[in-house]
Amino acid sequence: VQLVESGGGLVQPGGSLRLSCAASGFTFRNYGMNWYRQAPGKERELVATISRGSGTKNYADSVKGRFIISRDNAKNTVDLQMNSLEAEDTAVYYCNAPAFRAWGQGTQVTVSS
Q: Other CB atoms closer than 10 Å to residue 2's CB: what's the count?
């Protein structure tokens, strides 16, 4: 199982970023996926989850209404569209396949003026 995140970077408050995670090594369409984040000095936090068919999506209260999780089972990718970014969203963001306890290497998101 391999997960590779991309799309992080530096963005100003109020801006947007789209993260993407490319999955391989398992039948992607059969499993739910998660995005987590970890800010400096804090524990890793679950940000968003998506079921295998995209029928169920859940979000942390801190990102509800601003972030959107989506997946493309034909491309084996899961994305996180992040809008109205705040300084508190600064963190390393990780893709997670919970059925395999697999993690990507993470991508840094920094929100700063």
A: 12
DSSP state, 62? T
Mean pLDDT per block of 10 residues along the chain (113 residues) reads 97 98 97 97 97 95 98 98 98 96 95 97
d(CA 12, CA 101): 33
* Pairing, β 9-11 against β 107-111: parallel
Bridge partners of residue 108, in order along the sequence: 92
User: What is the reported pLDDT for 109?
Assistant: 98
Half-sphere exposure of 9 (CA within 13 A, CB side): 11
| Cα distances (angstroms) measured from residue 56 to each of 34, 48, 69, 75 | 12, 11, 10, 19
Is the Cα dihedral 85, 86, 91, 97 positive or negative?
Answer: negative
76 phi, psi to nearest 5 deg:
60, 45
- Per-residue pLDDT at 30: 97
Q: How far apart are CA 36 and CA 25, in angstroms?
A: 20
